[in-house]
Specification:
Blueprint: E1 8-16, E2 19-25, E3 34-40, E4 47-52, E5 56-63, E6 69-75, E7 79-83, E8 90-93, E9 110-116, E10 119-124, E11 128-133, E12 136-139, E13 152-164, E14 167-176, H1 185-196, H2 200-211, E15 218-224, E16 229-233, E17 247-254, E18 257-262, E19 267-271, E20 275-278, E21 288-294, E22 297-302, E23 306-309, E24 314-317, E25 332-338, E26 341-346
Antiparallel strand pairs: 1-2, 2-3, 3-4, 5-6, 6-7, 7-8, 9-10, 10-11, 11-12, 13-14, 14-15, 15-16, 17-18, 18-19, 19-20, 21-22, 22-23, 23-24, 25-26
Length: 353
C-alpha cells in the first residue's frame, strides 16, 4: 500500500538547488501521522524518509557545513523534530503551546517554524513567538510582543522572515471577538412556537439577532528592529468587506526590499524605514499564498494558480508537468527560488495524482 495515499503535502522547504524536504500529513486526529521526505539530488538513492506520529504543518532547515541537509519539522501542537539521515528524530517540545496535549496553557496551535541563519523561531496563536536557545525553547522577548487591541480577541503570528534577528518582518492576523450571545429562555420558546406555526422566517430572525454583527479577521505586518515591534503596514480593504486583507507570506528580497502577499490580491512592497505601498492591481482578488524572486520577475502562488508579476499586473504562469502527476493541479502551496532553480510545491493529495 502506498504510504502517501490520502496524505496531503502540508509543508515544504527548498534547501539548495538539488536538496529539499516535504511533509505529508493526514489531518485527522484519530490518525495523526506524517511522513517527511528529504531529497538529495546528487545521490543515486536520493530520498530519505521519516515517520512522525504528529500532524507536521511546517518544516525548515539549511545546508550544514558537511553539505548535508539540516531539517526541522514542527507539529501544530508545538513538537519539533530534528531530522538527520541514519538516526532517529530528535524531539523537543515548546512547553505550554498546543490544544490537545497535557501541558498546554491554552495558548493554542503553533503556526510556522522558520530559520533565520541557523537560529530557529516558531510563531503561533495568542501572540506566541519562540526562539531555540541551545536545546531549549524560550519566548522571544515576550514582554515586547504585539498584543490585541480592545476590538480583537487575540493575534495569530504567521509567516516571519528577516535578514537577521534584529531585522524581522512578521505577518499578524487579528482575530475578532465573538459578537453573539445565547438565546434567552423566552426567545427559545418563542422561536420554537414560530417554527410550529409555520413562520420560519420570524423564528430565524430571533436567532440572527442573537448572533450579532458578523466580524472578520484582519491582517497586519509588523517589524522587529532588535528593540521593539512596530506596525509597518495595514493591507487595503477587501472588495466585499471593509476590513484589511489577511497576509499569508513575507519575503525578504534584500534588507531594504520586502514583499508581503495575502488575500484579495494584496501585494505589499517596501521596508520599515521607508514604508510600504500596495503595488497590486486593484482588480485582482486572488488569495495569494507565496512569493519569490526568480530572474526578472516575482513569482506568486495563489489558491488556484501560479502567476508572474512584473510590478504592475499578474500574468498566468503555467508550469510544464508530467501528465502522470498533472491531475487536480494546480493547488499551490508554495513557490521558492534558489539561484537558477524555481521550486513549485503543490497541495494535491497523493491519492489525487
Amino acid at each position: 500500500m502506498d504510504a502517501l495515499a490520502n496524505r496531503r503535502l502540508d509543508s515544504a522547504m527548498a534547501l539548495s538547488e538539488k536538496k529539499f524536504c516535504v511533509a505529508f500529513s493526514e489531518a485527522e486526529y484519530d490518525a495523526m501521522y506524517s511522513i517527511i521526505l528529504v531529497y538529495e539530488g546528487d545521490y543515486e538513492e536520493p530520498w530519505t524518509g521519516f515517520g512522525i506520529p504528529r500532524i507536521i504543518d511546517s518544516v525548515t532547515g539549511w545546508i550544514g557545513k558537511d553539505g548535508k541537509p539540516v531539517v526541522f519539522a514542527k507539529s501544530d501542537e508545538g513538537d519539533v523534530y530534528h531530522l538527520s539521515a541514519g538516526t532517529e528524530p530528535k524531539h523537543s517540545k515548546i512547553i505550554g503551546s498546543g490544544v490537545y496535549i497535557e501541558d498546554t496553557e491554552g495558548l493554542g496551535y503553533t503556526s510556522r517554524i522558520v530559520a533565520i541563519g541557523d537560529t530557529l523561531l516558531v510563531t503561533g496563536h495568542n501572540s506566541q513567538l519562540y526562539i531555540r536557545e541551545g536545546e531549549q525553547w524560550t519566548w522571544f522577548n515576550r514582554d515586547k510582543l504585539p498584543m490585541p487591541s480592545e476590538e480583537f480577541d487575540h493575534l495569530v503570528f504567521g509567516a516571519i522572515a528577516g535578514s537577521s534577528l534584529d531585522d524581522l518582518y512578521m505577518t499578524v492576523t487579528c482575530m475578532p471577538k465573538a459578537s453573539g450571545r445565547n438565546l434567552t429562555e423566552e426567545e427559545e420558546e418563542r422561536a420554537a412556537e414560530l417554527f410550529d406555526l409555520g413562520r420560519p422566517d420570524e423564528a430565524l430572525a430571533i436567532h440572527y439577532a442573537a448572533e450579532g454583527e458578523t466580524k472578520v479577521m484582519e491582517g497586519r505586518l509588523y517589524h522587529w528592529n532588535g528593540t521593539d515591534w512596530k506596525l509597518v503596514a495595514t493591507p487595503r480593504y477587501g472588495q466585499h468587506y471593509p476590513h484589511s486583507a489577511v497576509l499569508s507570506d513575507v519575503f525578504v528580497e534584500a534588507p531594504d526590499k520586502i514583499w508581503a502577499v495575502g488575500e484579495n490580491g494584496v501585494i505589499l512592497k517596501g521596508n520599515a524605514k521607508s514604508g510600504f505601498r500596495d503595488v497590486s492591481f486593484k482588480g485582482d482578488d486572488a488569495d495569494l499564498r507565496s512569493i519569490a524572486r526568480f530572474g526578472d520577475s516575482m513569482i506568486l502562488a495563489s489558491d488556484y494558480a501560479l502567476h508572474s508579476f512584473d510590478g504592475h499586473i499578474l500574468s498566468p504562469l503555467k508550469p510544464t508537468l508530467d501528465p502522470s502527476v498533472n491531475k487536480n493541479v494546480p493547488n499551490p502551496l508554495k513557490v521558492q527560488a534558489i539561484a537558477d532553480t524555481l521550486y513549485y510545491f503543490d497541495r494535491a493529495r497523493r491519492s489525487d495524482i
